[in-house]
Protein 1
Amino acid sequence: MSNIRRVAELAGVSVATVSRTLRSPNIVSPNTRAKVLEAVRDAGYKPNLMAVKFRAQRTHNLVVLVPTIANTFFARVISGIQAAAQERGYSVLLCNTLGDESAERAYARMVTSRQADGLIQLRAFNPFPADAFSAGTLPMVNVCEVLDDVACPTIKLDNRLAARTLTEHLIELGHRRIAMIKGPRRSPLTRDRLLGYQDALKSAGIELDDSLLSPGDFTPQAGFDAADALMQCRRPPTAIFCENDEMALGAVKLIKRLGLKVPEDVSIAGFDDIAFASYSDPPLTTIAQPAETFGRQAAITLIERLDGKQDVTHTILPYELVIRGSTSKVR
Amino acid sequence: MSNIRRVAELAGVSVATVSRTLRSPNIVSPNTRAKVLEAVRDAGYKPNLMAVKFRAQRTHNLVVLVPTIANTFFARVISGIQAAAQERGYSVLLCNTLGDESAERAYARMVTSRQADGLIQLRAFNPFPADAFSAGTLPMVNVCEVLDDVACPTIKLDNRLAARTLTEHLIELGHRRIAMIKGPRRSPLTRDRLLGYQDALKSAGIELDDSLLSPGDFTPQAGFDAADALMQCRRPPTAIFCENDEMALGAVKLIKRLGLKVPEDVSIAGFDDIAFASYSDPPLTTIAQPAETFGRQAAITLIERLDGKQDVTHTILPYELVIRGSTSKVR
DNA sequence: ACAACGCATGTAACCGGTTACATTTAGCGA
DNA sequence: TCGCTAAATGTAACCGGTTACATGCGTTGT
């Protein structure tokens, strides 16, 4: 592969002139420029970007840690990250971590070892060692599921309010026994949605009942199993609020398996508005999130931060209650 | 950030000794080794991998071109690529191309400009200029949807045989008017599945009817629209074979919207066995593909190729007919 | 006692660009 | 024509590792 020295030789100029011709053409004379460009063409020269990045000590790579790429909501977020990064000359190094913290730490080392400039984390976990960066320079942005106490910008939904809105929708339909299939126990996102759910019940004067809370892990199977457990308690719910659509689809399957109907016997609501939400039978009532915008905003914020912007912003994006056929008046 | 020279100074040795201590510890004396490792710790030294890669002229990055990451089948393939790459010390640069050829060419330039060592293409398109690599050294592997005429290893299903198997299943159930919702017109994958469908019909003595073929683009909406068109022809089909599960889910929605039942009125089959296939109502009959294995095998093959293996292998992976509730005896 | 060898370590070139600084050339006025 | 300035171009240091080769020293064999 030809390098800049070969091009310089072909064009009969110095390597500096070749470099300048390609980076700031206006400061070389038209004559020289033409010679150089011809030599570039003849040599089939492509600058070695590894060398460029090495010299600049800037990779223009962003690491993205995603719990699981197979989740269609995350897939949309990643599309947004990718699009915004690409527009700004950055590449995305995608890492499917399956929530494994040691894997996340390993990927974070790509930043400390200068394989990437910064990191976008879609999960509430800080993969960097506490002392890796001086205060306020952590090259990270946290999106979707967000840490409370880390000094980096975050982008999220007002999960508490969204969950409250959805729960209020169920209450307005006359439901009193409203179950919730939650996400992983220690997640702030799960905690916030639970709080919103409780807010709605409390202000409607409905007593909280822990037997209506069931844990899940965001997979359809978990929704199926959790719904099964809920329907076996003495006084089963008339509505189930699932913390994501995948689990809601699993819950719908279970209800039908029991010979019951959605929404006539049990109303079911999800969260995220994934593509399949409107193709399920019945189509899911859910909370739509601007997934691509999450991604775009995360990438933009991170790149600004890498460019030296110091302030730690916390962005809240809007949600929308999408009412479809999976929820209806009680009984 | 501290570099190797600073560590050498701290340890009172040369940079070569530091480098050796970290790369081949056994060739430095235990005394020196201890001194160096202490200095490494004290300095908080991490080798700058950009420099390492630049020096070695090897990035250990793989570019993956995926038409759309939001497709759950592709997401699983990518998981497989990622896992195998990571085990071998490679990172994955994921590029969501949306099938845009100029975007694919742009990403392929990451290889020619040495930002990545090789490329995995999930689509039937060669993004490299014809003259970019000398014969037999194209650093690319083509997986899932495969080019016929490019000198690189491929990994695919026997799509023709799989489509035939699925069609024969429908024929065995007594169907004679079997429609097909196809993928994009120019795709070899679509062509092969169509051939398999025709093979099955021919050997059963069923006449081919072009009005039973409808084009799609692998999205649920396309399945919905295509099924709509099919059901409006004079003699509508009793079974619809969709080239992927997303379109099958769209078709199921349309059939129900018409007030008909799946599978009693119309049997519907998909392809891929995505996670939601078993959560739809009724659960989809489909062809299961070993998606993660596709990815793993692609990554392994590419890395072998980068390590100098010359031969162009064409791997065929097994499929499985998964019979669920969306297909049944005709009438 | 000396040559020969091998182990541990040091020196410096190298990868391929970018760019500060030095040098040459061109243009223009006096 | 000379001198000055600005524009164009060249020279070489530099980024941070790796490694071929050189060096130095201790051990072994004769």
Note: Chain B touches chain A through 46 residues (CB under 8 Å).
Protein 2
Amino acid sequence: MKATKAKAPSLPSSALQRLEEVEDHFVDLWDNMSALWGISPTMARIHGLLYITGAALSMDDIMARLAISRGNVSMNLSKLVEWGLVRRVHKRGDRRDYYESLSDVWEMFTLVANQRKRREIDPILTTLRRCKEELSPETLGGLADTDVARQRYRRVTELLTLLSQMESLARRFFESHRGLRAAVELLAQE
Amino acid sequence: MKATKAKAPSLPSSALQRLEEVEDHFVDLWDNMSALWGISPTMARIHGLLYITGAALSMDDIMARLAISRGNVSMNLSKLVEWGLVRRVHKRGDRRDYYESLSDVWEMFTLVANQRKRREIDPILTTLRRCKEELSPETLGGLADTDVARQRYRRVTELLTLLSQMESLARRFFESHRGLRAAVELLAQE
DNA sequence: TACAATTTTCATATCATCCTGAAATGGATA
DNA sequence: TATCCATTTCAGGATGATATGAAAATTGTA
């Protein structure tokens, strides 16, 4: 009912409308980026809204603004909190929870990169090492002497080398968002 | 019918079986990586099979080995060829097409990165620039003097800065796979 | 040209994912 | 403890993506 009352103390309604249109475009943009960041579209839209408004919004605000159901907002907000992209804040005298996005883009990027690394890349490296193991002379015995086995061992090893090096780079750059920012600025200019 | 006759001239069948198990693991691995690389799972599996075997396989070989339908294999193979990860090869005296994966992991990585950049990142940058435009003083007029508008302009600008710098890095590193390899090795060790 | 082998296309079916809404839970107040 | 408000959970439904298989198109061969 009383979903939209919080902010916007004084702007004329036509101005508000203009700003809301831009918000919409921005949320759509986030939506399109979701696959790239490896998060679900709705999670991305909610985060986009929180980032661009810079405000602490309640579940009802978000439901109304993005036209999605309560349960959906609830689940995606908890994921966002879990990822560290959004934090819960409270307003005194109000029982509801409000949610606010991080404001530092470098920090957000670092968080997402680390989550993906932990959830996707690390398990892949583990599996790949096991594959390499399975193709090693110790496991294959005499079979390892065939051309076929040797070639496969080499291919797995090369892939492992690439991913390991990437992983080690990522570890260094994403340890803190300051590290990332410094590195990128350095590399991008020169 | 005569799907699997081509390679493997002399290995005992138990050895073949061992190797096929490893192939399976590798294909599964590729499957799991598909989201990370931004390609569909089946496309990834086919490519995984072609990469690990190092052989030129026909559609029938792939259908049989991965248990997927002809149409599916056909469509995904043409995508792989389009991306440049796989090439069509011919065997003399055989009307069928055979398909072979690139063998250089750095080259493959560079291809995928460039495709994603072109398909996903570049459009995002375009849209983001339009968002920034919509929030600029020129477009907003007097409204741009409000705190709200100023804050949003700043947020969009910061995001744009981050993505632009990333984009410029990517352009340099992914121009050729040699560039990437050299850069990663340099950064990873020191 | 007619034929046969192979590949491509695409309407339909299948599947996985995501969303909804209502019931269950939690937790503050009196 | 009883009540009220907010949040979470989850079974079932909606949606979109992917796979199938048979018909159409393509390409090489006689």
Note: The first strand of chain A starts at residue 57 and ends at 58.
Protein 3
Amino acid sequence: MTGAVEGSAPRRTRIQLEKRELILEAALEVFSTNGFRGSTIDQIAEAAGMSKPNLLYYFRRKEDIHETLMQRLLDTWLAPLRELDDIGDPLTELRSYIRRKLEMARDFPRESRLFANEILQGAPRIMPMLEGELKTLVDEKANVIKAWMRAGKIARTDPWHLIFSIWATTQHYADFDVQVRAVLGPDRGGDGRFEDAARFLEQLFIDGLKPKG
Amino acid sequence: MTGAVEGSAPRRTRIQLEKRELILEAALEVFSTNGFRGSTIDQIAEAAGMSKPNLLYYFRRKEDIHETLMQRLLDTWLAPLRELDDIGDPLTELRSYIRRKLEMARDFPRESRLFANEILQGAPRIMPMLEGELKTLVDEKANVIKAWMRAGKIARTDPWHLIFSIWATTQHYADFDVQVRAVLGPDRGGDGRFEDAARFLEQLFIDGLKPKG
DNA sequence: CAAATTTTTGACCGGTTGGACAAACGTTAG
DNA sequence: CTAACGTTTGTCCAACCGGTCAAAAATTTG
């Protein structure tokens, strides 16, 4: 009769751990396709194979599910950028970063869409993170890229907008997937579209960033 | 006592024309920030300065507002690509296209977000248009670009993914505006961010597309 | 002006939604 | 076995939401 599933000390049962995972997986599916307000607890419960009151036993409010999902997402979402290392070869590092981001768009499109949904609606729930953690990380990496430019390792350009462009182009293949498929048609829109995209983006960014002269 | 605001022959009063515009303007604001399901008729009505039943006198269903909005949007949204002309200088044409798209992201961010919202959720209402009109247009322009490549006017690459990248990078500044602002901070995130973006994108795409050798 | 028509409004309705709750059911430790 | 604790479910509720309707108010037309 505790019911304190989410206390300051979350002592969780085996069942709680399992069921919470099940719910989060189902919620990711539902939220990423319908948005927060467009999703109902009933939909998530059904997708998780349980009743609504049962779901509400594990997460007291709809928002709690979304919040938990968002917290987990952000860590893995920023991991590729965190790995951008200033001790490696600049062009190799950037190529790896682009490739990793594109792989995430391919392998975790639901996470990408969940994030896009949140930002589109003004990021009401993660604004502090954007202005804090994210800005700090981007500024840090922008300085790494700037150093590469000063050292003549890559062409000079705006590091922040370079990062934005990499985000935009790679996430486009997850967020606008239906449009990409529709335009490419059945032949070119199949599984090969990510390899085509990888080739194109490598040419666009890496060739474009090679130092002049 | 007709009430037939939307008949096969839409004989519309002056008041009807005015009020419908008012509603569409309000609905654009509301839909673009909350999504279709996240928006209520009451919100739109209040934003338009009228009561809910009054709004429903001009648009019988919520979906009708969204549909009308979407139809209008698509024409203006694709206009820049339609203008891409194969009689002009290739690099100039592409530069103009990128600039126009970025200007639209700056001047019509709500339209961009409305469109993004629709695509994100699987484009349930405009799928036929994507597979029809849009695909036809993109294929046509891809062939124009291909011809430029064969003629050695620009570097060889994938025209479809080139177009996707231009869409992604330019629309990013509308759809992910809050993120861009948050990361750039108060100084660089001000009005100048679009000029910085324009400079960056021109360098990225145009320099990268100059013919080799 | 007065009749006809258009516009606006308040009241209302049925369905949905997020969430509460207590009782029933299952599990586990002593 | 049994008491304590964890889990599940049916029922219920208040708020919200899309939409209807009839009647009032405003406007147009003759």
Note: Residues 1 and 57 of chain B are 12 Å apart (CA to CA).
Protein 4
Amino acid sequence: MRIGEIAAVVGVTTRAIRHYHHVGLLPEPDRRPNGYRAYTVRDAVLLARVRRLTELGLSLDEVRDVLADDAGRDLADVLEELDADLARQETEIKERRRRLAVLLAAEPGEGEPISPALAELLAKAPHTTSPTAAKDREHLTLLDATGAGGEEVYAALGPLAADPAVLALYERLDELADAPADDPRIPGLAAELVAAVPDEVFAAIPRDGAVVTGFKEALLAEYAPAQAEVVRLVMEAFIERGRG
Amino acid sequence: MRIGEIAAVVGVTTRAIRHYHHVGLLPEPDRRPNGYRAYTVRDAVLLARVRRLTELGLSLDEVRDVLADDAGRDLADVLEELDADLARQETEIKERRRRLAVLLAAEPGEGEPISPALAELLAKAPHTTSPTAAKDREHLTLLDATGAGGEEVYAALGPLAADPAVLALYERLDELADAPADDPRIPGLAAELVAAVPDEVFAAIPRDGAVVTGFKEALLAEYAPAQAEVVRLVMEAFIERGRG
DNA sequence: CCTTGACCTTGCCGCAGCGGCAGGGTTTCT
DNA sequence: AGAAACCCTGCCGCTGCGGCAAGGTCAAGG
């Protein structure tokens, strides 16, 4: 048989067969005078064995091992390992599909894949065009994606988000966009912000390991000077609370 | 933040981030005077979005598309397609595991992954050292692997395998190993072989499409001249029966 | 001051299992 | 005789990074 014929018999492509030759999985058969590979039925039997194993999901290296050690004992080992691997993949896929289902169910409006808990929180918050509020929401999605914040954080933030008084605080922060870093309104606003956040929020944020070096600086760099001052003061106050 | 810091915040490797830059999935941030990449919190937010999507199983190209079309409508499409794909993979894995389970249950002796139906058939056949019988078994595994033979073939072959008289036929075929192609024993043996195979076997073999060109020649080449003659006669007789 | 160690930079190779293509030659059918 | 359908070798491409090489940079400690 020529390569196309054995390929048709066994049900694989000629490219695959040549690849098997290339990696030494199948021996190169004799050649006809014109250079064509001349396959025997025994080659087809061998190829079919290879094929069965690869279709089960074994890697070519594993197939080579199994065919080399004709022990048959090895095969059972490899198959069991493979089954364990497939089981792992299966649960992985199920988990992903579960999360996908959650997203698909809750997302026909949002253009962002976020956890349902955060989605609920954001939905509760009043609509606003405040830039600093938008920034806060972005930071929350970051927290959400890293998985650092659990359900408790969102639950604790719930009343805060629903409180219309918070909007006024955001607006006062917005007003500091062009103010100098020593604006007199800074300390007062910082104090009010600290007071507004309930203790539970702070308690719910996992404090395992310090915040990554450089993150705070980067966070402050996001804001105008006077706003950064406010944020810095608020953060300091929280760190104090953490120590207390 | 430096690259290692943003990587720690979001929970990815620096290599992945650089890769995202390389393929244009994330914009290259500004550089510090020393050449280090300087990331902002906004970069972290973006990276986190990318990360969420890739973790769901989207390809980097798909992520790029989703982030480009901020429509949010596109996202739902991609996610649904992804879910369909995952569902397909899941059933695929289940099917493989099912076959694996069958093999693992029935195989603690055989060194070959074959269908249980064929395994049962081979177990029924009496033990023999006949080379031509061994060849036949190999050819059956080939048939088994290609999926051409269904359960009916094996069922029809059952009585034949269990018949000890068949052993004598194999031995007579073996005896022709060194005989010339015009040995007088050939026609009689061929006729007896044809007579031995029940009609159901022949009927059960699916005859969709001719046998692959070149296969018969290769099959005949497996045998010594006189044996090949027998096989050829048997095949001819079957083809005749097929026409009738 | 010098070293060590922990960072950062660019860039290229490797991975699995083939598919595709280029740039030939052969056989076969019409 | 020409076209279609085969065959050959060989190399690049895909995915999503990981690893390694061969450096530059920066902070802390002996």
Note: Chain A has a mean pLDDT of 88.
